[in-house]
Amino acid sequence: MTLHELKQKREGGFTLVELAIVMIIIGLLIGGILKGQELIANSQVTATIAQIKGYDAAMTTFRDKYNAIPGDMGNAQTRLPNCTTANECRNAPAANDNNGRIDVNPGAASGAMTTEASQAFVHMAFANLISGVESTLGTEIGGAFPEAKVGGGFRLGYTADGLINNIIAAGDATPGHYLVLNASGDISGAVPTTASDLEAVQAGQIDRKLDDGRPDTGTVQSDGDNCLVGTDTYNEGANDATCYVAIKIQG
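The structure corresponding to this sequence follows.
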């Protein structure tokens, strides 16, 4: 082969076989990336479910050890290690302390650091039962309220009539303590009605693994703009992060 012929061959570009091989490689890379993203998303949901079960167990252990509900303990500063005002670990307000419940609705404003809702996770953290709480950062996700592995974070409270503000209407849930999984940021206010960090497909996965998979019944219930189809089906084809989920963890 002459030098001229070799040069012409090199300038001829890719053959169809070479192009097919390149396209296959690109397809495999894209498929691997998408599969990896799916695996990451599923692992985040699994880790969040483990968190939920962990908080339930921690609350039970706290009750057994101290004969009190975390957040509701009126003498926390004399009973919990290193629990001081300087660390934003406080006694429950005297008006409702030691009555066996966290006297803030799970979907309502948690209020300042002095409320039972703001102290619930703090008390469990100072009892060395949970991690991920930095009480001195105040009423933030990542502060007094732990972050969720799937995004957003948790708040905790009690409903006597089944009402959970902006999530469940009165009578639609059984009375008790509920975790609410919602958006990040400062959550001293009520559960927002239009934004979260949770997609419908993630909310549906959590519901199916912990309850009956229906957003309007059982111990796991959900709502949020574009989160549901009707009232009984998760809108899992949507990508909007607008779901909030309430999970019953105690009687």
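The mean pLDDT is 86.
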